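Hello K.,

You asked for the raw outputs rather than the summary table, so here they are, unedited. I folded two proteins back to back in the same session to keep the settings identical. This is the first:
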Amino acid sequence: MMSVLATLPTNMGGLEGAVVYIDTESAFSAERLIEIAESRFPRYFNIKEKLLLTSTKVHVFRELTCEEVLQRIESLEEEIISKKVKVVIIDSIASVVRKEFDTQLQGNMRERNKFLAKGASLLKYLAEEFSIPGDRQRWPPGSTKQAHPLAANRSREDRRLITGTVTRYLQGEEEESDERLGKASARDSKWATLREGMEDGEKKMS
């Protein structure tokens, strides 16, 4: 829901911008994106061209490790400027943290906190510099006041691949299997979380 709202024109209560969606569980679904768009805003998305336009504004990156997530966040400044990004979604930090840090092992808690603090600091910088909203529920506390310089020019091959998947689905060519898209129940749960976070936005548009 958050991704769809960000791409809507301002006269509909949207941000008229692009979205960066960092997917750590390979569960992003083009089908689900379209279902949300058509069910929530049927009058606006009653023609395929508007759905295609929305798909080009949602840039999905699959990052499956803590290191990859940090590298992606560090490269976002250029992406935000060039693509006019208004929302950054990380779905989810908890997933990569659980996979890589067993808090029962000595030293892991320190490394975990170091990762969370650095990531939170980078996101805080982006939020303040570009007025991008942040979801504190999806990234545990630990940010610092220091602004980190961001790197750029990381490969965009993965973004082109997944954006292309969204577009192919809208054109009726999508043939992704359930395994590749992720389990429907887990997918619906994540989108439910996004919808809950946008209650205020929906009220303004009603």
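The second followed immediately with the same parameters:
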Amino acid sequence: MYLPQTSRLYGAAIAAPKFADQRLESRTRVDYTGSLRRFTAFCIADGYPDPMKQRFVQLPGVLAASIIQLATANKRRWPAEKLRAAISWHYAKPKMFSDGHPRDR
């Protein structure tokens, strides 16, 4: 996050992802987790680090390759869209969780 801790918006910016996550349905978290695990396997299979634990320079390109493979392998766009949404959800958090999501409540 690019807001300094002294900013009056800092507290709201930290609270926003937590608030959004609390509103996310359990089934959606399960779907996102599955997408993130498949993406992690995709990265590791090609010799990249676990993207759920560490960002890396090639991440945008690897993500694009994974999304295009999903989009061309499936008649429906949902798997690719779900991965895109899951990545956004994961990386929007101030603290990345090691397994890709907070524990289901």
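Confidence is low (pLDDT under 50) at residues 96-105.

Happy to rerun anything if the numbers look odd on your end.

Regards,
P.
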